[in-house]
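Hi there,

I know you've been waiting on this one. I reran it after we fixed the sequence typo, so this is the corrected version. Both the input and the resulting structure follow.
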Amino acid sequence: MEDNRRNFIKKGISVAAALSLGGLQGSAHETSIEDVVQLNSFAKDAGMEMSNAYFSGIEANKQLIALAKQMDALGAVAGVNPGLAGLTNVNPWEYKAIIGVKEAWKKQGLKFNVVEGPPSLGEKTKLGLAGKDEEIENFIAFMKNLKKAGIDVICYNWMPVISWARTSMDRPGRGGALMTAFDYEDIKNKPLTKYGEVSPETMWKNLEYFLKAVVPEAEKIEMKLALHPDDPQVNSIQGISRIMNTVENFDRMLNLVPSPYSGVTMCQGNFSLMGADIPALVRRWGKAGKIHFVHFRNVQDLSGVLPSTKFTETFHDEGQIDMYEAMKAYYDIGFKGPIRPDHVPTMAGEENTFPGYMTLGNLFAIGYIRGLAEAASKRAKA
């Protein structure tokens, strides 16, 4: 009954809009009631799953969770921490842990839709150390249990030991907002890690070993594996090579074990800092079915070289990426998966306790992304 009432109201508003446009009087460009109804019936968020990252758990994100529900941005991207469900002595790849965490998010009114930072994928696998086969077996078990729980996207990376890295967490940005930033000059002389020099060839060999073991199993259960680019996308940090730092290397990865279920996390910032034309890349990989998850963010290169060795995060509306053209590309390829803002600034009134993931920046980003999605949808139907 309520749905019928909403539809009646929507049609009534659309009829009024058509009348105000002179749609019943005829003109060289006549607008019919049906045209206006269709224009107003676009899918919310262009059919994508608007989401937020909650890496610091529930208690630390109470305000963002409340705002997300008010904004109707209900996807929850997180890891699997059994403690979130009050569980102890349970491995995070076990079904009990996964379903417990999913229910914990459900109680908050959110849908746990992407695992970012999967358990049992660490140094042993990425560096090819003893124990890698056990890690991979646990990862396969994790995929199966995750799918059983109704979650089908895993965002993973190939950055052992040193993962997401920045040299500044409080670079002053627009209006005094605090941005994260990176300058390779600040870390180039840091000592090697305990693993010494790790060559690109070793990293490629280990990645191929992992993919050959995991992708066929992912395909059987239709689990989407979304590899995140190296961040920062430099060639090495403290002796450990970073190989997922060019578009060409991603193409190489996708061809190692070709499958519809082996794809990418389209982290716009990193691919742009590699020199990619983001809308064009979205269309190319999107048409091939390789985009499983989107980090919708903006950046500014400060180095003048590619891949960038010095850059800063920005507000979504001020960096080097044409965000509207990017959104049009996602709409045009029919992307319907999860999308979230990433690495937002810390804004006035906030303490910079979790740089890149503070509440007000996410609030701004969700509104901006939603506006772009609506604009792209209506442009396509006009």
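Quick highlight: The chain has two domains: 1-41, 44-381.

Best,
R. S.
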